[in-house]
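Reagents: none. Just compute today. Oligopeptide/dipeptide ABC transporter, ATPase subunit.
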Amino acid sequence: MKEKTLSSAEIRGSERTALSVENLEIGYRASRGIVHAVRGVSFDLLEGESLALIGESGSGKTTMGLSLVRLLPTSAKVFSGKIIFKDDTGRQLDVLNLEKEGLRRFRWEQCAMVFQSALNALNPVLRVRDHFLDTYKSHASSGRVDEKKVIERAKEVLRFVQLDPDRVLNSFPHELSGGMRQRVMIALGLLLNPKVIILDEPTTALDVITQRAIIDVIRRLKQEHEFAMIFISHDLSLAAELADRVATMYAGRVIEIGNVEDVFYKPCHPYTVGLLRAVPTLEGGRKDLISIPGSPPDLIDMPSGCKFHPRCPYATQQCMEEEPPLIDVGNNHGAACWHWQRVIQDWEAGKDAYERDSD
Ligand SMILES: Nc1ncnc2c1ncn2[C@@H]1O[C@H](COP(=O)(O)OP(=O)(O)OP(=O)(O)O)[C@@H](O)[C@H]1O
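Predicted 3D structure written out:
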């Protein structure tokens, strides 16, 4: 049977699209060859929607995020693809071809990224208030800077992330805890009221209580504001809690995408199943935890066919020969697996392919 492939329009076509990524290919130059970090990624982000990019370390999530704000390191090259952003006036911006001035305004004002390394991203010799003033001066499109107004706005966003503005604005970064610095970074991201905010591992490296506080801030962002969000995480529980949609990445590709309920409760790709099996549940869940055997592929010299086949309990000859497209499994849910029907049947029957094969 010929499977129907999920087109990028079906992945989420809508006039309410805030950001559209089409067939993006990105590689890094390395001494051994090209690291194929992002391979043919397409998705749309709707206005006000939150999309989680999940996957193991090295699957290309951060590269994907950095490309959206054109902050890739110089060793990276975008081989092909498009990133289209719709601004507030409905104008479409071709992000990969923005000139210097357009790019300056696009970053922070339209699309802000809060980095994984947020804890070290603040300049240690600048007080927090100067970070807000500098960000405003370098990125706001409105000509003259009214410092009083900027500080008023800074106070507003700091209060939103539940920090005391009077204390924090006059502090140097080292005077703040890790969780407070993370919140300052989120507040900076909100300063110019962007339409899209990208959060890269927003809770990694924070203790559990602080993680909870950050999750609450992100949830309020989602509920009370119109931000569209992309958050990058290897923490599936964070994705389950905060995302409307989930995209699983493996070896630089989106191998499953759909509504959070579909991807987490009806996974159709064996890799997503493997990730879900590795999440501990309170009640001890589906038997013992089993991690995915093997390790992610070498992105310079990848396996033939489906890049997951060497680790996959469902792999057949076809998987070794042909890389599956993102197949339409219904309800705007796509999975790049030739055997998705067996995968979902086994999942629904509580059968564990990983366990069965390791017997
Ligand atoms: N500056 C770079 N030069 C060469 N290769 C790089 C560079 N940055 C990332 N890579 C490689 O690109 C691939 C994708 O990395 P990326 O950081 O995007 O993945 P990730 O899923 O975000 O992982 P993590 O959660 O560890 O950040 C990896 O193989 C990584 O080693």
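The two ends are 32 Å apart (CA to CA).
Action item: order primers for follow-up constructs.
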